[in-house]
Specification:
Organism: Bradyrhizobium quebecense
GO molecular function, one term: monooxygenase activity
Structural class: alpha/beta
Shape: globular
Protein name: Nitronate monooxygenase
Oligomer: single chain
Order of helices and strands: HEHEHEHEHEHEHEHEHHEEHHHH
Keywords: Flavoprotein, FMN, Monooxygenase, Oxidoreductase
Number of helices: 14
Helix content: 40-55%
Pfam family, one: NMO
Strand content: 5-15%
């Protein structure tokens, strides 16, 4: 078993997190992750109303007695959701772990901390990680350029971003973006992180509440099957490459503004992808890690495999390298 500051702080067996994913972070997936000893997150804004979130938390509790959290993502919106009401439901429901992401979450962090809730803040740069640390976050999820969703505008891949953040951030930090197997976990630990966050990999599990055809599409895709949309609007988002995302990128090159692509990128269309299995129905998130995903295991199988293979890499491959070196030096 791999113990880190992160597993100790958040009371989980394994240093693996299933972070927030719009339309995907539902009770059945989160409970399966929790039951396997990792940390799952219900995505608050997937639920249409705060009361629906209350019911989803209760549904998850019926399926697990292990720790799980809730993701609350704060992003610019034409009609912002009632964040304070969602936050209140999280507090009233007795949730003890929250993943925040997006715009400065100071008021949310303050309120969560007041109620003894641990806050894991996801960010895409060292400066934002340090800002979240000053704000009172308990831990950081540092998100590299490889990730699905919003990679920020710095384009810094994990291989640089993780150790750069580890050099400066004092609180526990997990690595996000591009992680899907044991090699990634060992690499993250070597780079200074205390665990990993996986999104796309957890989409492609038996308990993931999305259509089987989408899971099969992820398995079939390689690492090149993503597009970066909204680059010209400085609100970059990495999504699966399909007819819609390719069209949006082309329209942006021709000078399109958000109003011109609004219908193409509508969240309702993306939601339909997961419901119908038609991967070209709308925009849906997926990371470059698709190139490392070759099967659709249960969450228990996936987590057990990652941890056991990571231990084997550390104990056998890496230790053997140093042991061989020591023997040769002695000779």
């Amino acid at each position: 078993m791999i113990k880190t500051r992160f597993t100790e702080m958040f009371g989980v067996d394994h240093p693996i997190v299933q972070g927030g994913m719009q339309w995907v972070g539902r009770a059945e997936l989160v409970a399966a992750v929790a039951n396997a000893g990792a940390l799952g997150m219900i995505t608050a804004l997937t639920q249409p109303t705060p009361d629906d979130l209350r019911k989803e938390i209760a549904r998850c509790r019926e399926m697990t007695d292990k720790p799980f959290g809730v993701n609350l993502t704060i992003l610019p919106a034409i009609k912002p959701p009632p964040y304070a009401e969602y936050r209140q439901v999280i507090i009233e429901s007795g949730i003890k772990i929250v993943e925040t992401a997006g715009n400065k979450p100071q008021e949310h962090v303050d309120e969560f901390k007041r109620h003894g809730i641990k806050v894991l803040h996801k960010c895409t740069s060292v400066r934002h990680a340090l800002s979240a640390e000053r704000m009172g976050a308990d831990a950081i999820s540092i998100d590299g350029f490889e990730c699905a969703g919003h990679p920020g505008e710095d384009d810094t891949p994990g291989l640089i971003l993780i150790p750069a953040a580890a050099d400066k951030v004092k609180i526990p930090m997990i690595a996000s973006g591009g992680f899907g197997d044991a090699r990634g976990l060992v690499a993250a630990l070597a780079l200074g992180a205390e665990g990993i966050n996986m999104g796309t990999r957890f989409m492609c599990t038996k308990e993931s509440p999305i259509h089987q055809l989408v899971k099969e599409r992820i398995v079939a895709n390689d690492e090149r099957e993503t597009e970066l949309i909204f680059r010209t609007m400085r609100n970059t988002s990495r999504v699966a490459k399909n007819a819609v995302s390719t069209k949006v990128v082309q329209m942006e090159k021709e000078g399109a503004k958000f109003e011109d692509v609004r219908e193409l990128v509508a969240g309702a269309r993306g939601k339909m992808v997961y419901a119908t299995g038609d991967a070209d129905e709308g925009i849906w998130s997926a990371g470059q890690v698709q190139g490392l995903i070759h099967d659709i295991p249960s969450c228990a199988e996936l987590i057990s495999r990652i941890v056991s293979e990571a231990e084997a890499i550390i104990r056998e491959r890496l230790d053997r390298m140093t042991s061989v070196g020591k023997r040769q030096a002695a000779e």
